[in-house]
Amino acid sequence: MNTFQLYNPTKLVFGSGTVRQLGMLLKPYGKKILLVYGGGSIQKSGLYDEVLGHLHKNGATVHELAGIESNPRLTSVQAGIELCRREGIEFILAVGGGSVIDAAKAIAVGVPYEGDVWDFFVGKAQISEALPLGTILTLAATGSEMNGSSVVSHWEAKLKRAFSSIHAYPRFSILDPKLTFSVPRNQTVNGIVDIMSHVFEQYFSQTPDTPLQERYAESILQTVVENGELALADGENYEARANLLLCGTMALNGTMNPGMQSDWASHAIEHEISAIYDIAHGAGLSIVFPNWMRYVYTSRPDRFAQYAVRVWGIDPTGRSEEELALAGIDATRDYFRRIGAPSTLSEAGIGEEQLDRMAEEAVRYGPIGSFRKLEASDVREILRMCL
């Protein structure tokens, strides 16, 4: 295990009816609020009216930034930054899934910065301050509600990049499982894949002597697998939705893998796919991850064998370490297929035309991953496996 520091400043407010605490949570932060959200789902569900009611009751002046894309775009972030500056916004409230929260974080760090907010995404500048923000989560997926990371697409340049900063952590996040009841099946599926993929990126590690972190990761995966199918069978199963929601948060708030080196190569590869083709992040990960697994498992077959036995319950009797590893990879792909996630790029209408570009962009700043370092040729081969 490596040395580490663990700190998370986000206050998590979890459970049925917790949106009613919004006014109290906002009191320390001022009255000029930017409300950030996506499409019309929060209006159809009644959440929009409820949130506005609490804000107005608290004496807030509310400005709105609607229409945040599923892969949030730099242009939307820039529009939010200008709105905040023009109206003297004191607090940003993101209501929606990870994309909305990621956009809100980028707006928050961009407002006090004199340059282009894209500088933070390409490493040209360091974040030193941000407007405070809070979230009301409506989708179990990214974990953005309790970390400092943000992913944004520069659509015109066909680039998708991320930053991470302690200054971008939400001050609070409200998680009411009932708000996820109306999430469409395909978004629930993508969220399941996204949560599992976040765990994979940290669990498949070369760091030795991490038994607690490994079992924590395995328990999250088991819980997602069990409750994912329950939630898909009955979208209003409160316990299943609650368990998925909490898994999404715990998978990426820093508590699962302290002292372990993470990988993140599969996310880097998927970012190149969705930067060009604008497919849902979870859908892209469901295609990439099983192929990444098959490409790299020989770097540590013992971890993949352990994964097969502990997560999927595969009987090790009479099987070699390699056979177990491959069985676990097959079980992963089979589960993704069973819940309706795509397995190939062709299913998403994507061919091989941009493979070379995606491979080169993925390693623009050098080899990616830590479980096994991947060069452009490796990324290209994984992408070909995805076809």
Brief sketch in words of this structure:
This is NADH-dependent alcohol dehydrogenase. This protein has helices at 22-26, 41-44, 47-57, 74-87, 98-110, 118-121, 185-203, 211-233, 238-250, 265-277, 281-296, 301-312, 321-339, 355-362, 376-386, and strands spanning 11-14, 32-37, 61-65, 91-96, 133-137, 149-154, 159-164, 172-175. It has 387 residues and is an alpha/beta fold.
Tag the structure with descriptive keywords.
single chain, 387 residues, Rossmann fold, Dehydroquinate synthase-like, alpha domain, two-stranded antiparallel sheet, globular, BDH-like, NADH-dependent alcohol dehydrogenase, butanol dehydrogenase (NAD+) activity
Give an overview of the whole structure:
By secondary structure, the protein is an alpha/beta fold. It has two domains: 11-179, Rossmann fold (3-Layer(aba) Sandwich), CATH 3.40.50; 185-386, Up-down Bundle (Dehydroquinate synthase-like, alpha domain), CATH 1.20.1090. 48% of the residues lie in helices and 11% in strands. It contains 15 helices and eight strands. It has helices at 22-26, 41-44, 47-57, 74-87, 98-110, 118-121, 185-203, 211-233, 238-250, 265-277, 281-296, 301-312, 321-339, 355-362, 376-386, and strands spanning 11-14, 32-37, 61-65, 91-96, 133-137, 149-154, 159-164, 172-175. The protein has a six-stranded parallel β-sheet, with helices on both faces. It has a two-stranded antiparallel ribbon with strand order 6-7. The mean pLDDT is 96.
